[in-house]
Amino acid sequence: MVEFISDEILDLVYDESNFSGYSTYLPPESDDAAPCPPGSWNLNKYFIIIIYIFVFLLSLLGNSLVLLVILYNRLNRSVTDIYLLNLAIADLLFALSLPIWAASKVQGWIYGTPLCKLVSLLKEVNFYSGILLLACISIDRYLAIVHATRALTQKRHWVKFICMGIWVLSLLLSMPIVLFREKLQSKDYGYVCYENFGKSTEKGRLILRILTQFCGFVLPLVVMLFCYGFTMRTLFEAHMGQKHRAMRVIFAVVLVFLLCWLPYNLVLVTDTLLRTHLIEDSCSRREAIEQAINVTEVLGFLHSCLNPIIYAFIGHKFRYSFLKILAAHGMVSKEFLAQHTKPSVHGSSSGNTSTTL
Predict the structure, then answer these.
(1) Bigger pLDDT: 199 or 54?
(2) Any idea where the G-protein coupled receptors family 1 profile domain is (predicted)?
(3) What is the pTM of this model?
């Protein structure tokens, strides 16, 4: 059972570290190891609640619109659209868990172990499926632009199996955390949703973390950097920037994902190095890592509501497709739709017009 240090830590720290399961305030590796004192600075729980509610509402609205636009334009759906459709589903499912986490900041974890496992699963699957889907988009763009390969990417029935494989792999990568998540009672302040590894499984916990970080973050990141590096070089050499305006949206989506999730994962890597004693362990470093986890995890949660904003402000085709839906249902006039020029069709990997980019 996980024991915390004080009521102040309950109010200001445990909410974030419980959510990630990577808190540095874990049981010491031996009974002789002295625990570190509580930190002097932490995020206020009411600020976190406001962020959760804001992200939930914005994500619910934005990702629902993305689903509407892509599903409505079934005939013109491209390979990239199918990946972005699955990305919106992942973000939407994760957003649905945020009200539960927000309520737990006030009431403690009163919802039992099954719901603890479920909402933890949604967070993990959202992250892993997100980066894996973006890696698949990078491969699709690489084949279509660098090698001018259409035969493979035109077979959209393969894309469905790829997406199914991504969901399965995301579930497998999420299992190490979800299997050990439980409703635990702290001696100091009640119930929390946390991982119950016991006191003698620190090495196993580190092995699982390293494997999931490598397979679910490092490897897809390397694939994206490789594919987009060669894709950008090809576009610049061929002066094809105007013909591939969709790449601006894709690059923006990838950049925002990295800005939101890369800091959090770099902190986890640092924490892993500390726990394996590759860097010197100290209370000051544990406190710094704990504070960094709290901040960077909130940044990661913001990501679930940002993609629709990117489509709306950068994606001309997304705006036009949405206005077409409104015009078809009489919500805007055809004259208003005519004022927005139809975007040109270039660079679709499937040979169809993307309805999102």
Answers:
(1) 54
(2) 62-311
(3) 0.80
